[in-house]
Specification:
Elements lengths: L11 E3 L4 E3 L8 E4 L15 E7 L2 E9 L2 H6 L1
Parallel strand pairs: 3-5
Antiparallel strand pairs: 1-2, 4-5
This protein binds zinc ion.
């Protein structure tokens, strides 16, 4: 089970007259999962897939890419 404690899951965007809820995925954020540091991103990530996070505020789709380096090394 993956536990995420992102207070940023409850994001909102200004629509020129009011704030409305939106997902980080709709804003273009892509989470990169793997053992890479932020300054050395994965060179062979997967295609972006949707991971759905649930919490008391609702359902939050997140775009994620997974490291595929270990599969490249086995070929
Ligand atoms: Zn990688």
């Amino acid at each position: 089970m993956l536990s995420l404690t992102f207070p940023i899951l409850n994001t909102q965007v200004w629509t020129s007259s009011f704030f409305t809820r939106c997902s980080l995925q709709s804003l273009g954020l892509v989470l990169h999962l793997g053992g890479h540091s932020p300054d050395q991103p994965c060179l062979v990530p997967s295609q972006a897939e949707t991971l759905v996070a649930l919490d008391v505020t609702g359902i939050h789709p997140l775009a994620v890419k997974v490291c595929h380096c270990h599969q490249t090394l086995l070929l």
